[in-house]
Each structure stands twice: as C-alpha cells, then as structure tokens.
Amino acid sequence: MDWLRLPRRPPLGSEADRATFAALHTISQASPALREGLTASSAERAVKHLRTLLGTPAVALADTAGMLVWDGMGRHHAAQVTELIATTLELGDTGATTLECDRPGCRLRHAIATPLAIEDRVVGVLLAMSPGPTAGLLLATHEVALWVSGQLELANLDAERTRAMEAEVRALRAQISPHFIYNSLGAIASFVRTDPDRARDLLLEFADFTRYSFRSHGEFTTLAEELRSIERYLMLEQARFGDRLQVSLRIAPEVLPASVPFLCIQPLVENAVRHGLESVEGVGQLTITARDLGQECVVEVEDNGVGEDPDLVRRALAGDRSLDSVGLGNVDARLRNAFGDDYGLVVETAPGAGTKVIVRVPKFAPGVHP
Amino acid sequence: MIESWAALVGVVSVVVATLAIGTWSLRFSRTTSDFLVASRSVRPALNASAISGEYISAASFLGVAGLVLVFGAEMLWYPVGWTAGYLVLLVLVAAPLRRSGAYTLPDFAEARLESRTVRALCSLLVVVVGWLYLLPQFSGAGLTLRAAVGLPTWVGTTVVALVVLAGVAGGGMRSITFVQAFQYWLKLTALLIPAMVLLAVWVGDGATNPADIAPVGSAAGTDTSWSLPIGAGTQGLYATYSLIIATFLGTMGLPHVVVRFYTNPDGRAARRTTLVVLMMLAAFYLLPPIYGGLGRVYADRLGDLDQSDSLVLELPRVMLPGIGGEILTGLLTAGAFAAFLSTASGLTIAVAGVLGQDVTGRRFGRVRLSGISAFRVGACLAVVVPALLAFTTLEVGVARMVGLAFAVSASTFCPLLVLGIWWQGLTAPGAVAGLLVGGIGSGVAVVWTLFEISTTGWPAVLLGSPAAWSVPAAFLTMVVVSRATRGRTPAGTRRFLVRLHTPEVVPLDRG
Fold first, then answer.
1. Looking at residue B221, what is its pLDDT?
2. Is B2-24+40-396 CATH 1.20.1730.10?
3. Nearest to B30 among A224, A248, A251 (CB)
4. Chain A: closest CA distance from residue B26 (Å)
5. Which of B26, B371, B372 is nearest residue A251 as measured by Cβ atoms?
6. What is the ipTM of this complex?
7. CB-based contact A101:A126 (threshold 8 Å)
8. What is the pLDDT of residue B125?
9. Percentage of chain A with pLDDT > 70?
10. CA-CA to A200 of 20 to 30 Å: which in A217, A309, B16, B113?
11. H helices present in A6-94, as ranges
12. In the beta sheet, which residues pair with residue A296?
C-alpha cells in the first residue's frame, strides 16, 4: 500500500541534504553494474551514472586494453587521450592533459585520468573531460575512482568465490582418484584369473564410474544419476572388501527425477565407507535411504562405523579444511547455495555410535535443473 | 446389519491393505546385483496404473452409473470427457510439463513467469480445486456405508477422512506409486466381476433392452430420449458442450494428476505414461454404464436423484437376492472405498504440499514450523475443511460436484498451462488477470450451485455448467492483458520454452 502513503512523505530537508540524497541514489544505481567487474557492457551501464555524479560534459572508462566507453559530448577526442590512458595505466597515478580542438561548439579542453585499482593492481582508468582544470573536479574524480575501485574489488571477490566453488567441485572429482583408483584396480586384478567375467564387469563399472565423476558439464544432475554412480562405487568397494561391507538400499522411486548438485551424495557415501567402515572390526553396515516427502526428498546415508566427535563435524561443516572429512563442508555449502539455508546437511554422530548424514532437497527449486 | 458382513470385511481389508502397502513399499535391495533394479525409474505402465488408480474417484465408480440411470445416455459424456482429458494432456501438456522440472502447478507458474504473485494465486487455486474435489469423495463415502452397511452418513465420511489423514500425515505416503497402482487394479476387478455376473443374470432373464423401459419418474410409454446422447433443446446442447469443455480441459489442472507426472524420468516417458492411462481409463469406463443400463431394467426405485449414487451397490442385492448378491455388494463396497481412499489421499497430499509450502510453512510471529510439521498441519487443514463441508451439503450429486471441480480447473490452470507452454507472449499480469477472471467466474457458479438450487431456466444452466463461457473468457483475458503488458515478458522466456520443447536426447545447453 505504498501509493497510499506517497503524498505524506516527510520533507527532504535542506538543499545540502537533498544533494547528498541525490548523490547516494546515483551511487546505488551505478553499483550493480560495477559489481559485475569492468567489462564493455558493465562500463556502458555504469558510465552515465558516473557522469551524473561528476557533473562533467563527458566521462570515459578504459581498461588495460584501451577505451571501453565514452559518455557525453566530444567523442572525437577519444584518440587524443590514448596516450594519457597508457601513462596512467603504467604509472598508476592521476594525470591530466589539455585537449586541442577546432570544432565549433566543442567545449572540452581538459582531461583528467585516474587509475582504477584492485589491490594495487591497476585494471582501468576513469577519465573526466571538462572545459578547464579545477581543483574540485580533480578531487571529485579521485574520490569517484576510489569508490569504483572498491566496487571492482568486490566484484573480484564474487568471481573468486565462484571460482573457488568450481575448483572445489573439480577437486572433489580429482579426490576420488588416488586411493580409490589404486584399490579398485588392485581388486579387479585379483579377479582376472579366478573370475574373468566378474573382472570384466567390474572394469566396465569402473569405466562408467570415472566417466560420470570426471564429466565436465553441468552443475546439477538427477538423483537417479547420482545413485547409479554410487551403486557403481559400492560395487567396486564390495569387490575389495567382500563380505566385510554390507550395503542396503531403500529407494522410493518417486524421488529419482529430483535435481541435485552434481556429486552431492557420493562424497557422503565415500566418507561412510572410508571413515565409518574401514577402521572398524567385523562387518560394516551401510544403509542408503531415499524417501518421498511430498514436496521434498530425503536421502539418508548411515553407517555403523566408529563415528566422529560432533564438534569435529561442526567444524568440518563450517569449512575447516584441516580436517579429513572429504567434502562434507563443500557438499553443505553447495546444497545451501542451490536451495537456500533451510537445506543444509544434518549429521547425527557420536564416537563409537556410527554416523548418519541426512540430505533434504526440494523437488523443485527455481533455476535448478540438470 | 448382520447380512452386510461382506461389505464390512471388504472395507476393512481395503483400508488395511492400503496402509500396509503405503508403509512397506520402498524398494529394497541388499545385494549389489539388484541395486540397479532398486534405483530404476518408475516404468510408464506402473506409473499409468498409479495415475489411473488415483484418478478414478467416487464420481467414476458410483456417480456415472447413477447419472446414466436418471438422466440417460447424455451423461455418458462424463466418462468420455474424463478419458479424453488425457488426450488433450498427452498432446499439449505432458512432455513439456515434465521437462519444465516443476512438481506442482505453482512450481510451473513460478518457473515460467518468474513471479511470486502468480505462484501465490496458483497455490490458492490448487487448494480450491482440491477441496472441491475432496468434498464429493467424503460425502460419497458416507453414502456408500449407509447403502451397503446401513450406518449413518457421517460414519463413512469420518472413517475415510481419518484413514486418509493417518495415511498421509503418518508417513504412509513414503512411496505412494505402488499403493495407487494397486488401487487401480482393485477397482477394475471390483467393478468387472460383479458386472460379468449381473450381465449373465440379465441374459438369463431374457435380456430386456434398457431403452425400451419406461423412463424413471414418468408414466409415459416408450420414450427414446433416454438413449440419446444430447439433452433436449438448446439448454441441453449448451450444457453438453459445457461439460465437454470442462472435462476435456480440466484434467490437466487437477493437482493430484500433475504431481504424478514428476515421477516420469523424461518427457518421452511422460507421453508414454499418458497413452497407457488413456487405455486403462477407456477400459474402466466401459463398466459403469453397464450398471446404469441394468439399473434401468431392474431398479427403478433408485431413480431418485438422492439415491442414484448408491445404484452400483444396491443392484446386486436387487438382481441376486441372498448370499451371492451380498458378496458382490461386498466387493463393490471395497472397490468404492478404494476409490475414496486413493483419490482423497492423492488430493490431500497435493493440497497439503501446497499449504505446507506456501501457508503453514510460513513464519507466524516467532513461530515457524519445520518442513514435516508444516506438511502435517497442512494435511489436517486439507482434510478437515472438505469433511466439515461434506456434513452440511449433500444435495448435489457426486459426479456433478466433481464436474464443478473440473470446470474451475479448466477455467484457470488450462489457459495458464496451454498458453504458458505454447505462447511466448504470456506475461505475469496477463496470467494473473486470466486466472482471476476464470477463477472468479467459475467460482461464483460453484457457490451458486452449492447453496442455491432453486434457480431455473438459462441462469441455472449457465451457472450449473460454467465452463463454456468461463474458459474462453479466461483465455481471452490472458491473451489481451498479455498483449497490453508486452514489455513485461519474463527475461528467461525463450530459454525456458526451448527447454520445454527440446527432447532430452538432443545435446543442448539447457542452463
């Protein structure tokens, strides 16, 4: 009911207040574009707000490769500032130059260039063109450039976070390799003479398993695909452990088409086998349950192994990398990233009492599909 | 009471079997060799049985036969429409809906139009359609127990409501596909075997043609209008067309039908499933008219509108007095209870899911229920409201009530789905306007029919069968408002439509 209140908006205060509000508003409008980093399209969307902020007839943005965008009058001066951009990029310091012009009506006679930097690395230049040099404009350009640099730094952080997440998925793929590949090949080799058919089957399973795990496209997959890969993994592990590893699966077929982040259950199963069962004497029990809860699916991975200290698990979920819990924090982060904070991992464990990891995923979430 | 033990045994065994299968039907595997079986997707045949089992409600099992008995052959449009609805679903909606990844109709609306408002409106409509459809299931259950065992009406209603609530809220829905598939075959058997026996009796009695019998309630001699497919006059013609539109287009918007399609692994499987559903329903719907026809020959006294819904249950007793008739009635009662239970559970799950997500799962002050509690509270709401309504309104026949639910669904979700899937110009304001026009139009008609039966003439016909005007009105509103708000087409429309219409086997970046 905002429109009911519009006429009774409180007065905006003095002239100076209003100028401040206007400036803040312009800043907030330029910021989304700059948060994408310095590209031709983001520069184009941000530059007109920067010109409003500086109040000059023309403003331009350049990156290390050259001019990105020129906003305002006097575009024909673009060639004259090339050298100024180059020196600013090289020295990382504010510079100025005078502009020669014989065109009638063109008022631009002076250009100020200020470097834009991310962590002391110069990534671009902000240019402000004006009829003449003033100290105020110099100061304003400098401040605006500092602010733009701040935004670009944030954009850099965003990009780095995404890259880190992707790298972790890659690492998860790679992580499967050393122990598991060695052990599986060893187990398969032991069957080659005694049971060649089984050895052949296992080798094919191994091939399918690696193809899925090393696939490079797509952030999401279906629960069916993920479970199929887990089955292959368990088949190979059972070849190695024999009767020491007992697995039971209880799957409600209704949940199989649900979309889940790629490799989000498999690390949990691997954890259960490695930490839960390898170190335990006697038979290791592993149970994987997938249940249908209407709008949600619940997947539980349970083992009867040595269990873990809940505090350690809490630290692993919080992202402590010094611990040896394969991907627990990573899976948690990716689930939250895809479905929201309601859908983090739940781990029930205690020393000597086994471990149960519970994953909840909604059957539908906007933007999540394989 | 004592002689109706067969019916009681039937009811109890159906209830026990339903709850048992629901609780223990997770796929189970202990050895690696059947891992792949355990995680295989549901086959189209099984899924189709489940959809049919859930779809064949009290209206199909009891209502159609009664309507044919009272109003004659024009009522066959109900089963025809209920089946043909899947043809429209198959051609226009099945595969794209599956490829959209949506689980419920509100999910689809949100994914397609990127608007929370449309989502909220769709959630509201899902609840309305669900309640309208649940209402006749509950009142039909009361009727069945009264006819078969002689218990008061409220007993049957309460029993079905409680069993459904226990099954849904108590976790019996863990794997509902098997339960519903079982229910289809149970219902088919329960209707098929008595029909065969009764047909044999009819042939033994000399096979009188039902069309030659004097019409119910009138003393006139041979009147052939009973066996004609279209009612008398323009009003009858209008009502017939309205019924056809409602049933043909309403099926795709039924909340419990749509969620079943999610179980299919891909669009192709969704189409196959729909095809099998068509065949299964076609087979099933051959049976109720047999009861209608035989009822005309043997059971005139049931011709009152009040009692017509119990025709299927009474007929064996009338035609085969004694123990044989009782056993057949027991079988039919069991089948009817299976119909109430399966449709009501499916609807309750669908409505409770939407309520749990969009209503009871929200924050109220400081309290916020967790997923499962929100779902359970939603399930209680989903059952209690229509059950209470069932105690108050019993005047409207079961099939007619379901027909109104179809009309609301056809006037709201059909335009949304068809335009959303096949037209890239649909905008969120257009969808909202269309849903409002269709929903309010058909909603007013429903309320009128429920509480004001004394209207006669054209107003009664227009309000009693609203689909023929409310569906075109909703389509038109959606198109016109979408054209007027052309600038507000959602940003991801093209990408989304490409995903809807490209088969999964085509390698394509669907991001």
1. 45
2. yes
3. A248
4. 5
5. B26
6. 0.83
7. no
8. 93
9. 89
10. A217
11. 15-34, 40-54, 82-91
12. A293, A362
Residues of chain B with C-beta less than 8 angstroms from the C-beta of A239? none
pLDDT surpassing 90 at residue B6: no
Average pLDDT, chain B: 83
Domains with residue ranges and CATH for chain A? 23-156 (3.30.450.40), 219-362 (3.30.565.10)
How far does A43 lie from chain B, in Å, by closest CA? 21
Instruction: Enumerate the residues of chain B whose CB falls inside 8 A of the CB of residue A224.
Output: 39, 41, 265
User: Cα separation of A236 and B94, whole Å?
Assistant: 39
Cβ-based burial of A44 (10 A; exposed 0-12, middle 13-18, buried ≥19): middle
Contact B27 A234 (CB under 8 A): no
User: CA of A237: which chain B residue's CA is closest?
Assistant: B32
Q: Hey, what amino acid is at B494?
A: R
Of B101, B114, B104, B90, give the one whose Cα is nearest residue B494.
Answer: B114
Count the residues in chain B: 511
Mean pLDDT (whole number) for A241-256 = 84
Chain A contact set for B47 (CB, 8 A)? none
Gyration radius from chain A CA atoms: 30
Nearest to B210 by CA among B230, B192, B243, B199: B199
Min distance A222 CA to chain B CA atoms (Å): 9
**pLDDT at residue B219 above 70?**
no
Tell me the domain boundaries of chain B: 2-24+40-396
Q: Specify which of A63-77, B72-86, B165-179, B389-403 reaches the highest per-range mean pLDDT.
A: B72-86
Q: Does A227 touch chain B (CB under 8 A)?
A: yes
Instruction: Please give the backbone phi and psi of residue A122, each rounded to the nearest 5 degrees, phi first.
Output: -75, 120
Q: Which residue out of A166, A295, A298, A361 would a mutagenesis test of the B interface target, given it has the greatest number of B Cβ atoms within 10 Å?
A: A295
Q: Closest residue of B to A290, CA-based?
A: B26
| Nearest CB to A363 within list B42, B103, B111 | B103
Structure token digits, residue B420: 């959303």
Interface of A with B in 265-304 (CB under 8 A): 289, 291-296
Instruction: Using alpha carbons only, give the angle B13, B376, A253 rounded to the nearest 5 degrees.
Output: 65
- Tell me the residue type at A247: V
Q: What is the CB neighbour count within 10 angstroms for residue A218?
A: 13
β-pair type (A110-118, A259-261)? unpaired
CB contact under 8 A, A295 and B103: yes
Nearest Cβ partner of B27 from A238, A251, A360?
Answer: A251
Closest to B261 in 3D by CA, of A363, A6, A274, A81: A363
The overall pTM is greater than 0.90 = no
Picking from A205, A197, A244, the residue whose alpha carbon sits closest to that of residue A228 is A205
**What pLDDT sits at residue A1?**
42
Q: What is the DSSP string of B286-308?
A: THHHHHHHHHHHH-GGGGSHHHH
For the segment B56-82, the average pLDDT, to the nearest whole number, is 86
Which two three-digit tokens encode residue B509? 């970046």
Closest to B371 measured CA to CA, from A315, A337, A291, A221? A291
How much of chain B, in percent, has pLDDT values that exceed 90? 31
Across the A/B interface, how many CB contacts are shorter than 8 Å? Answer: 108
Amino acid code (one letter) for A133: P
